[in-house]
Amino acid sequence: MRVVIFSEDEQFFNASAGLAQSLNADEIIGVGLKESKAVKEMILIDKLDEDGIVDLITKTSPQLAIFGNTRRDRIIASRVAGKLKGAIVTDVLSLKLQGEKIEAERVAYSGMGIAVVEASLPSVITLASTKYQPRELEDVKVQKVNLPEGRVRVVEKKESGSGSSNLLNAQIIVSIGRGIGSKENIKYAEELANALKAGLGGSRPITAELKWLPEDRQIGLSGLKVKPKLYIALGISGQPQHIAGIRDSRLIVAVNKDKNAPIRDYADYLVIADCVEFCKALVRRINKGGGGKLLI
Amino acid sequence: MIDYHMDIAVNFKIVPDDQMIKPMGDKLVVDVPLKISTYDKNAIEEAVRLKEKFGGKAIGITSGIYDLKSIKEALAMGLDEVVFIDLKNSDVYSTAMAISETLKQYNPDIVIFAEMSTDSGTSSLPGYVAELLGYPYVSYARSINIEGNKIRVERSMLTHIEVVESTLPAVISVSGEINTPRIPSIKQILEASKKPIKQVKFDNVSPKVVIKDIKPFVINRKGIVIEEENVEKAVDKLLEYLKSDGVVLG
Prior knowledge:
The complex is a heterodimer of chains A (296) and B (250).
Chain A lengths: L1 E5 L3 H13 L4 E6 L8 E5 L4 H10 L4 E4 L3 H14 L2 E12 L2 E8 L4 E8 L2 E5 L13 E5 L7 E7 L5 H5 L2 E5 L9 H11 L2 E4 L1 H6 L20 E5 L5 H4 L7 E6 L12 E4 L2 H14 L5 E2 L1
Parallel strand pairs in A: 1-2, 1-4, 2-3, 3-9, 4-8, 5-8, 11-12, 11-13, 13-14, 14-15
Antiparallel strand pairs in A: 5-6, 6-7
Helix pairs in contact in A: 2-3, 5-8
Chain B lengths: L7 E4 L2 E3 L5 E3 L2 E3 L4 E3 L3 H15 L3 E6 L4 H9 L4 E6 L5 H13 L5 E5 L10 H9 L3 E11 L2 E7 L3 E8 L2 E5 L11 H7 L4 E5 L7 E8 L7 E3 L4 H14 L3 E2 L1
Parallel strand pairs in B: 1-6, 1-8, 6-7, 7-13, 8-12, 9-12
Antiparallel strand pairs in B: 2-5, 3-4, 9-10, 10-11
């Protein structure tokens, strides 16, 4: 079987290669900017041009194409599927081959459900998890390809500089929802985040609608999916779109005035309190205790 | 040449209200009231705004679940017409085939989708349709500028923002940040009932992906409620619990 993999994210590239190896595919072709020892053949491209990558992958006629989970990965995956007129399954948690078909478990209903699906080949999938780990292979064949300029041109790139990528690796995250009350009150959440050496994120209403925090701090279904050891949700009611981004947290503490807020069902601890008062009290406690010490 | 007439197609999906979906035992209860998928309202809003700016027609396309109330809501928001595609056992492939076949009759300058639906949430349909139509695909738009047949779009890639340029006709997916969907007035709701709803049947392709089972995605949480007479005591209690979990703060 010929499997082609692509992700602009190294972790997802490796997970895709790990999955391809677990299927005992005889051809595993990687497409990317950097060399990798996790594939049997590597096509090194000169730039991340979406049109060019779509054409390149389609021309290799994959039976299975595996992609990561960044927005660009998903865009390219959907287009490759369209060009191949093949099956597409996104947010795959696990996958096995069954003759000429694949059977996969995928996330559905904004993260509320898991769907078990069967798809015919050729299939295109995107991964929701990085659990598959590859082993190093020997004698990787390398080929260099210069991609042509596509029909959609990136003319400007604006880095937000707000350090959102730190949230993806944070041990503790303090996160804000509408229940924080006002933009001025965010400073209390910031003080708590500083005292805990935590990352600061927010729900979609806070980041995308009210813009009280930079948009790239959005945690949830259409934003960042985080996996800290401790997630502190301040005034977040618990919409499914938000829960979808925090499922992989080890412990979830929610602070809310409303005892019946839906987040109750998704939290390990629900503290019934005003968010600002909670922040002040916990910061006082941490400072009294010597400050910032964290053992997990 | 600047053409001030623009025909717009917008795809929207009718889904079970995701805020009402609940696990029950080992099943997920999805038999709940229906609604227009959350971000699809942003897509409809953007289609109506472009129509208001450039003239032309804005046509809604929906497939799968038929719900008259949701379709009327889309019309009340300002669409001129809705085409319902009767499609059984759909997946991304068969839906994309049905939508692209339907769109070919309308020959729109722009086809708008939302970044994702709340049920399957694959984000795959716009890219798939773009390939079937042979149109450029511009995704996750948070603002759209059009001049003649040139489009300039700001798109959110989560960790950064990109400005991209392309040409019409094109498929564009919009993010939830692009606008705030309007709430139709009583007058618009009344007018909507006079607007046409067309039904077409599409049954000549079979899906390539079949759902075998849907189960709840359950992660067991402790669900302990801490309610004390003051916040200091609540914090103390929380820290005690966290300590027993092996987490010590401060």
